[in-house]
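Question (not urgent): is this output format expected?
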Amino acid sequence: MPIELPNAETLLARLVDQIRPNLSERTALVGIHTGGAWLAERLHRLLGIKAALGTIDVSFYRDDYGSRGLHPRPQRSDIPFDVESADIIIVDDVLYTGRTTRAALNELFDYGRPGRVDLAVLCDRHGRELPIGARYCAFTLPQPLPASRSLRLSRDATGTLSLRLIDA
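Got this back:
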């Protein structure tokens, strides 16, 4: 059965609607490079969050770093706000095994101890290997994807997001 993906911009609007009622003065966003960072930029602007936007590259924190090797272009992590006691929403494009989220948590705690940490994702593709779930999720695939398929978020020159299925 073919999988129909909703428009990524529509999914972004769903995330805004899910997150907005739970915002506080202590809310900050941290996007995981690359797709999560793009998504976090848009959410930050649409939600009017006052705290500066943070970004994380989890390349060095992955527990499978030895088998996967270094990402070809690692990005610098930048968390320009005080993590201590902040309500942080980690933002990623696709939730799969949970290993990227675990790595992001490990790095985030190197910056301090947040008051609360939630996860926001555009799409959950199933296939968890760790007990991690998203508090905010715009779309869950109706069935798990085989490991040979992947979801990829892209951004065009105008900043418009699109989500598509690809062969891994």
